[in-house]
Amino acid sequence: MERKVVFAKPEALTDAPTHYCPGCTHGVVHRLIAEVIDKLGIREITIGIAPVGCAVLAYNYFNLDVAEAAHGRAPAMATGLKRVQPDKVVFTYQGDGDLAAIGTAEIVHAASRGENITTIFINNAVYGMTGGQMAPTTLPGQVTTSTPFGRDVKIAGYPLRVAELIATTSGAAYVVRRMVTKPATIASAKKAIKLAFQAQRAELGFSLVEILSSCPTNWGLNPREALEWVEENMAAYYPLGDYKVIDEVKSLK
Amino acid sequence: MAKILMKGNEAIAEAAIRAGCQAYFGYPITPQTELLEYMSRRMVELGRVFLQAESELSAINMVYGAACAGARVMTSTSSPGFSLMQEGISYIVCSEVPAVVINVMRGGPGLGNIQPAQGDYFQMTKGGGHGDYNVIVLAPTTLQEAIDLTILAFDLADKYRSLVTIIADGMIGQIMEPVELPEIEPPQRPEQPWALTGAKGREKNIITSLYLGGLPLEKVNLRLQETLEEIKGNEVRYAEYMLEGAEIVVVAYGTAGRIAQTAIKEAREEGIPAGLFRPITMFPFPYDRLDEVAKGVEHLLVFELNAGQMLEDVHLATRDRLPIHFYGKMGGVVPSPAEVLAEIEKIASPQRGER
């Protein structure tokens, strides 16, 4: 009997089982990136930079050349890798603590230089790996292990809106925010990731896809409740949308 | 080959270019800035990579990235910037990728000043960042030596897949001297099967400094220590001046070594049997050779532009079998040869010195 493959693991993912918690959306985003890399046929020229945080072991899951950066420094490391091999595709995969706290200078300047790299930014409003402390993106009032009475903005300040911030840089070509909560939003996130990589291939400048993600373990919710929390609370503070899409990117498609 | 007059920072930059440096990332800081400025012009003219980073933290991580791709890469800085680079240096060493860092030291601690000093000796030779590691540290005393050691630094970085530093100071960076710049063939570099160049026709490569669980990280540490032992066996370098018949030997490096050399010449003219032992590799420190030298002499005088840092290595080398004197100036104060001579005279004839 002739058989046709209708569903398979992307070549850009390894067979290694991930260490992510049940209901965490890191795995979903890994898969979207891998599917896009396969679709664009760029696996053999793509180099990933893993962050410090829950995705620190991403180098075990992507079937690509991968470097593991110091906390927050992925965009600087990506800059070095890309500048000496401009024909390669270089992307960073970073969480909110990594990108929006300790690595704020690196991401802002990489974007501002129009560094021809792509950043996939996972915003789950919490430090996952260290056990649920306040992140720069933790919502006002949100309880974490370091804001046990809820984030008091008078003490801890306000959450940072990264996509909006990066969209103000002249070097950015494509900056959008998506979420991965149900098939329709996941499909939309995949399209955005694809466009971000295409923008890099077309040498149009810096591209960033912010993805609102869930962290059931540290939020104290079950996976389904966590996805609802993303839609109800996170998307309210961090509106989905296209924050900067230059004309050259619009005409890619 | 004709000699040309060059400033230290520019001579180091040109030496790096001739050694085949493909990429430079840096951040302006006095008294190193002319090095970055020279690179900003020449690297671009040659179609190579130059980038001014937003901080020394970023600069060293850009170096890390380019090194992961297998490029010949360097950065340069001065003391406060070198402190900021410690994080990246620790990662680079653990990842076993080659890179070169020039430190044109200035007075410290803190913001300090922009005068020449040697206060970063501990930070440079004893690790500096977190974890168990050392890096090769080369100490030039003239601009010609700075050129030669910069070229050597790239080769050693390749050979041991590690980070190599030049310990210079504001004097070396700022003075002008006639130098010869060698014409160098494109470097013969070792194969780099580990480099991140895209997993085409091979298994994927991973470059990381994360090794979860005790045993895997212990294994990496043992390998790093093995490399350090190899370096200690192969790369010890030093210079000796007027050691024959010397009873008082000055131990000094870099700019201090140069001042000491003049003082020793004058001491000899006065009939004081003085000599100079000048380490060139501050790591690996020439413990054995210094110990040998110390066996035949009566006094050692350690002279540094700091509070006495290399002094500890001199104690270690000689196990205090002879009197070890120290003369140091901190905070960017550079003594004249006459001041060092006075210290030598004190040791040679205590009564005379107290006059």
What does this structure look like?
The complex is a heterodimer of chains A (253) and B (355). Chain A contains 11 helices and 7 strands. Chain A is an alpha/beta fold. Chain A has a single domain, classed as Rossmann fold (3-Layer(aba) Sandwich). The longest helix of chain A is centred in the last third of the chain and has 19 residues. The model of chain A has no long low-confidence stretch (mean pLDDT 97). Chain B folds into 2 domains: 231 residues, Thiamin diphosphate (ThDP)-binding fold, Pyr/PP domains (Rossmann fold, 3-Layer(aba) Sandwich); 116 residues, Rossmann fold (3-Layer(aba) Sandwich). Chains A and B meet through β1, β2, α3 and α5 of A and α3, α5 and β9 of B. β2 of chain A pairs parallel with β9 of chain B, so a sheet runs across the interface.
Report the order of strands and helices of chain B: EHEHEHEHHEHEHEHEEHEEHEEHEHEHH
Strand line-up of the largest beta sheet of chain B: 3-2-4-5-7-6-13
Tally of alpha and pi helices of chain B: 14
Distance between the termini of chain B: 50 Å
Quick one: CATH class of chain A? Alpha Beta
- CATH topology group of the largest domain in chain B: Rossmann fold
Gyration radius from CA atoms of chain B, angstroms? 21 Å
Number of domains of chain B: 2
Oligomeric state: heterodimer
The counted number of beta strands of chain A is 7
CATH class of the largest domain in chain B: Alpha Beta
- Cα shape of chain A: globular
Q: Find the count of extended strands of chain B (DSSP E, 2+ residues).
A: 15
Task: Tell me which protein chains meet in the greatest interface and how many residues each side has.
Answer: A-B, 35 and 38 residues
Regions with little confidence, pLDDT below 50 for 5+ residues of chain A: none
Neighbour order of strands in the largest sheet of chain A: 2-1-3-4-6-5-7
The fraction of residues assigned to DSSP E strands of chain B is: 15-25%
What is the CATH-assigned architecture of the largest domain in chain B? 3-Layer(aba) Sandwich
The overall pLDDT average of chain A reads 97
Biggest β-sheet of chain B: count, sense, barrel?
7 strands, mixed
